[in-house]
Amino acid sequence: MLRLLKKQGKASCMILFIAIFLVSLHTVYSETGAGTDADAKISAIISQMTLEEKIVMLHGSSLFNSAGIERLGIEEMKFTDGPFGIREELGRNSWAPVGATDDSATFLPTGPALAATWNNTLALEYGKCIGAEARARGKDVLLGPALNIFRTPLCGRNFDYFTEDPFLNAGITVGYVKGVQSQDVAACLKHYALNNQETERGRIDVQVDERALREIYLYGFEAGIKQGGALTVMGSYNKFRGAWLCENDYLMNKMLKGEWGFKGLVVSDWGATHSSVNSALYGLDVEMGGRGSGPDAYFMGSALLKAVQEGQVDEKIIDEKVRRILHVMFSIKKQQPDRATGAINTPEHRQTVYNVAAEAIVLLKNSAGVLPLNVDKVHTLAVFGDNAMEKHAQGGFGAGVKAKYEITPLAGLQNRLQDKVKINYAQGYKKQFQQTPGGRRFFGAPAPDNTPDTTLIQEAVKIAKSSDAVVIFAGSNRNFESEARDRTDLQLPFGQVELIQAVAAVNPNTVVVMITGAAFDLSVVEKSVSALLWSSFNGSEAGNAYADVLFGKVNPSGKLPYTIPVKLDDIAAHALGTFPGENGKAEYKESILVGYRWFDTKGIEPLYCFGHGLSYSTFEINSVKTDKSKYTQDGTIDVKVTVKNTGQTAGTETIQLYVHDTEASVMRPQKELKGYAKLFLQPGKKQDVHIKIPVKDLAFYSDTAMQWVVEPGQFELLAGFSSRDIHKTTLITVK
Ligand code: GLC
Description:
Layout: H1 2-31, H2 36-48, H3 51-56, E1 65-66, E2 77-80, H4 111-116, H5 120-136, E3 141-142, H6 166-181, E4 188-192, E5 205-207, H7 210-217, H8 219-226, E6 232-235, E7 239-240, E8 243-244, H9 249-259, E9 265-268, H10 277-281, H11 302-309, H12 315-331, H13 347-359, E10 362-366, E11 380-384, H14 409-417, E12 422-426, H15 454-465, E13 469-475, H16 496-506, E14 510-515, H17 523-528, E15 531-535, H18 542-550, H19 572-575, E16 585-587, H20 596-602, E17 619-626, E18 630-631, E19 636-645, E20 651-661, E21 672-681, E22 686-694, E23 700-702, E24 707-709, E25 713-720, E26 726-734
Parallel strand pairs: 2-3, 4-6, 5-7, 5-16, 6-9, 11-12, 11-13, 13-14, 14-15, 18-26
Antiparallel strand pairs: 1-2, 7-8, 10-15, 17-19, 19-22, 20-21, 20-25, 23-24, 25-26
Bound molecules: alpha-D-glucopyranose.
C-alpha cells in the first residue's frame, strides 16, 4: 500500500507540478499585454513548445480558425470576414452558414462609400463600429480593410475597395485600422498585393515597375502598417514578378517585414498557399483555407513539420512565425480580463453607419436645381427601379453580412415622408439574366439580360406623367459586381437606361440615384436627366440617407473616389490593352498613370472626374497661402486655404490639395493628391483651413536610386474642390 501510495504520491506530485506549471504558463500567457515584457513572455512560451505544437499554430484548425495550444492555455485564433460587416457564422469546416439566429450584424457602407466621404475621422468611427461587432462575436482578426487600388472599373471587387488614388487610400485605411484595433481586434490589410482584378486571380502574374509598385499599389499598405499599426496582412491569390504572393520573398520578407518593420502575422488568402518550404521561407505565417481539414490538408502542416525535421527549414524560422502569432494575440489582449467586449448594432453604430451613408452620397449633377426636392411642392413622388427595393448586404461570391436590418431607398422615403407625400412605386426594370442553358458564362455567372421590359417601362411612364417628381434608383447590385468575376464592359444592365430615358422624357423633375460599386457608362443617363446622384452599396441606413439628401435635410458632400470615364478605352489599362492580361501575365504598362493621373496627363476628358461632387450650396476658394516660400527636405508645408460658402444653405465642402512637380527629372503625373480637409460652413461665411504637407510627401520613388526622392526645385500647389475644379494655385521651392 505504502509502495502504492509512494508511487501514487510520485505520480500525483508530477500531476500537481504540471498543473501548477500549466496554470503558471496559462497565467503567464494571459497576464500580459504587448510590449517588451510580452516579448520576454513570448520567448518563454515558445521555449515550452514542441516543434509539433509550433507547426500546428501555422495553419487552420477549421475553416476560419487557426490552432491554439491547449496544453499551454492558448486558444484558437478566430478570423472573420468582412470589410463592411461581420459575416454570419459558418460551419467549422464548411462555407455554409450554420443557420444561427444570433449572428446578424450591422451592414456598413462598402469601401467606395467610405472613401467617398474623404473623412478620415469617420473612417476611424467606422473601424470602431465594425471592430466592436467583431469583438462581440468573439472574433480576433477582422479580414478588412480591403484596399486594392481601382486599376479598372471592371474589377468585380471594386465595391470592396476604396479608390484609385493612393493618398486617399492611405487616409481611409489608417482610420479604419486604428478604429478596428481600438476594439482589441486585429485588422487585416488585404489583399496584399496587386490583386486588382478577379479574372484568373488564382494564377495571374502581375508585372509592374518599382515606381508604380511603391507610389500606387503598396502606398496604402505601407501607411496601414506604419501609421495604422495593422497587426495582420493577407497574402493574395496572384503572383508578382513570377512568385506567388504567399511565398514572395521580396514583398513579404524584404518589403513588409524588412523595410516596413511589420511585427504582425501574414495570413494567406483562403487557398492561396502553394508550398511548404517556400511559404515558410518567403513570408507566410498562417495558412488558411486548406484542402480539407487536419494537418495533411495544409502545406504548413505535416509537410512543413517533415521539412523542418529534415533540415530544409530551420526551426528558428518556425519560432519567428509563432512569435508573430503570439505578438498579435498579446496585442489584442486575447484571453486577458481587460479585453474589450464589443457590442452589436448599438445606437452609436447605427448613427455612425447613417453618417457614413449620408456623407457617401455624391451629387454628380443638379443643373436645373431640381434638387433638393421640396416636401411642400412635391405631393406625389414616383419611385422606380429594382434598386429602390434591392438589398445589398449579402450576395456575390464572398463575404456578405446577414444584416440586422437594411433600409431600402423606398423604405427610407416612406420613413421620412410618411403621409406628407404620396409615393407611387413601380419596378421600371428588374435584374434579369440570360438563362440560355450553357449560355455565355459571365465570368462565372449568367450574363445579364439587357432587354428593356417595355411593360414595366410603360407602367412607369404612365405614373411619371402624373407625378410631381420622379426618383429612379438604378445601377448595380452585389450579384452583378462580385468577387471572383470581373465585368466585361461598362454597360448599365437590365435595360435600365431605356427606362430612365422614357421617364425623363415625360417628367423634367426626374432624379436618378446610381447605386454601384465601380464606374459604369453614365453618358446617356447624364444627358437624359438634370439631377444625378451616386453612391456605393450604402449600408443598413442607406434608405434614410437617400431620403434626407433628396429632400435637403442633408446637403450632399460626397466626392468621387474614382474617375467615371466617358468610355472604357479612356481608362489606362484598357487604352494599353493590358487588362485582363494574357498567358497568365498582366503587365501594368501604364505604370504610375492610374486613374486621374492618366486622364490629366494624357488630356482625356472624363465624364465625372476624381474628387467630383456638388453641393446644394456653392463655395469658392479665396486664397491659398503657404507659411514659407522655401522649404528644406525635412520641412512641413502649412497651406492655409480660405474658403467661402457663397450659397444660400449651410454645407460641407472638401478642399483638395494637389501637387505638380514643375521641374522633375522624371515623368510625373500632371497632379497628385497630397492633402484634403472637410469644412462645414454656414451660408456667406468664410473660414481658413490649414492642410499640412510634409515635404517628404512630394517625393517620387526613384527606381534607379531605389529610394524616395524629393528633387530640389519648384512645386505648384493646386487647391480645389475636385481634381479638375482647381480654384487657386501657389508655388513653393524645395531647397
Ligand atoms: C476570399 C477572399 C478574401 C476573404 C477570404 C475568406 O476568397 O479573397 O477577401 O477574406 O476568402 O472568405
